[in-house]
Amino acid sequence: MGAISILTDLPGPRSRALLEERRRWVPAGVAEAKHGIFFERAAGARLMDVDGNVFLDFAGGIGCLNAGHSNPRVLERARSQMDLL
């Protein structure tokens, strides 16, 4: 995943299509995302949406803020634990 880059309007066409599918099949909830962007991948502090746009994640939350998304050491430990359970 490269540098931050915006390739489409936001949300992009694939995200808009997924948002319509979501609205069709999933009831609206209190925590529903208002931006309409669907993310495909995350690594470190970067997020890539289904349209290929790359964002810097300023809201990763406590779960990944310190280690980043997809940190190899965290993933290895999680896989080890999942193998046990």
Your description of this structure?
- The protein is of the alpha+beta class and 85 residues long.
- It contains two helices and three strands.
- The chain has helices at 13-25, 72-84, and strands at 39-43, 46-49, 54-56.
- A three-stranded antiparallel β-sheet has the order 1-2-3, with no helix packed on it.
- Strand 2 and strand 3 form a beta hairpin.
- The longest helix is centred in the N-terminal third of the chain and has 13 residues, at 13-25.
- It starts with 12 loop residues before the first helix and ends with a helix.
What's this entry about, in short?
The chain is an alpha+beta fold and 85 residues long. It has helices at residues 13-25, 72-84; strands at residues 39-43, 46-49, 54-56.
Core attributes:
alpha+beta
Structural class: alpha+beta
Give the distance, in angstroms, between the N- and C-terminal Cα atoms: 32 Å
Shape type: globular
Number of helices: 2
Using only C-alpha atoms, the radius of gyration works out to 15 Å
Strand order, largest beta sheet: 1-2-3
The total strand number stands at 3
Order of helices and strands: HEEEH
How would you summarize the topology of this molecule?
Blueprint: H1 13-25, E1 39-43, E2 46-49, E3 54-56, H2 72-84
Antiparallel strand pairs: 1-2, 2-3
